[in-house]
Amino acid sequence: EPFTYASDLYVALAQPSASSCSILKWDYVERKLRDFDRIPAHSAVHCKPIVAQEQLYVVVAQLFGGSYIYRWDTAVDKFIKIQDIDSQKIRKPNDIEAFQIEGDWYFVIADSSKAGSTSLYRLNQNGFYSHQALHAWHRDTDVEYVENDGKPRLIISSSSQAPVIYQWSRAQKQFVPQGEVGEMLDVQMVKHFRAKREQFLCLSRYIGDSKVVRWEGQRFVEVQTLPSRGSMVMQPFAVGQRQYLALGSDFSFTHVYLWEEEKQKFAKFQELSVQAPRAFRAVPAADVQLLLAPSFKANTLVYRHVVVDLSL
Fold first, then answer.
1. Under 8 Å CB-to-CB from 75, ≥6 apart: which residues?
2. In Å, how far are 11, 146, 278 from 139, measured between CA atoms?
């Protein structure tokens, strides 16, 4: 995941096979990502950078051995472990999202264990503390933070029911259940994007078709269905004015789609050869637009966005 800290561009990368969370730094001269630091993490599934109040934190979520929060210490120029995350609540983490509401920083961890609970944490002066338990015992696969009509919401997908929506209550300072997204079961991942003033959700499935739906107030209208056998990731991303969608597959090529505004649909744009992709992240490195494609079975690949002038 890319992030900016002290005016420099970095990428945090979970590498369980290397037993670490790797932090890469963008070299503006050589125009490459270079090794910056490593945080020990034997079974990391997610390394979430959070830059809050001019401090850099990294939440290290592991399948085994507990999950931890590290802080970059400028006095010694290294990451220092500052706290553990309650292993009774977080048993099998699957995704992390961080966000700000009314000036306060939060992060939420989706837990995919049947005995676990997706949990919300809040930052105070001394660290991140448990704020709210959400959606217990549903084997959650992904969580997405969305602001729609000025209202903060969380969308949590799980393997046992349709994605559920929680809306922030300013009075209670907590998320309260609001409803579900359609009738889609076994949604692997939920991601959102905006096109003009419209808000859309991308719902990926490992078995069956993935869908793009438009958010219209209290209801969702299906926009497009995409074949997605073996898909663990469906990621919208923007490069300049272009809106793309990368749909990965464990059994075939990754398909990149380009949004066509007049048709309100994605059209096939390009195929990428990535073995078992688990994420796609756009990295805006100054005048270079990159796409990182971490793989479950092979090397992480870096693609560069190229515009070809065909007018001559």
1. none
2. 28, 21, 18
In degrees rounded to 5, what are phi and psi of residue 18? -100, 5
Sign of the torsion formed by the C-alpha atoms of 80, 86, 87 and 89:
negative
Residue type at 61 in one-letter notation: A
Token readout for 151 is 């209202």
Measuring CA to CA, which residue among 184, 297, 295, 276 is closest to residue 230? 276
Judge contact between 97 and 85, C-beta under 8 A.
no
Query: pLDDT band at residue 185, thresholds of 50, 70 and 90?
Result: confident
Strands (E), 1-77: 2-5, 8-15, 20-27, 32-40, 44-52, 55-62, 67-73
45 within 8 A of 63, measured Cβ to Cβ: yes
Residue 144: CB atoms within 10 A of its CB come to 21
**Integer angstrom CA distances of residue 61 from 1, 94, 233:** 14, 8, 19
Q: What is the pLDDT of residues 113-167, one digit of tens each?
A: 877 789 999 998 888 999 999 876 678 889 999 998 889 999 999 877 899 999 9
Provide the residue type at 87 as one letter: S
Radius of gyration for the chain, computed over Cα atoms and rounded to the nearest angstrom? 19
Alpha helices in the chain (DSSP H): none
Which helix (H) or strand (E) segment holds residue 55: the answer is: strand 55-62
Identify which of 28, 26, 27, 24 has the alpha carbon closest to the alpha carbon of residue 47. 24
In the chain, where the domains are located:
1-67, 191-205+225-311
pLDDT (tens digit per residue) in 217-236: 778 999 999 999 889 999 99
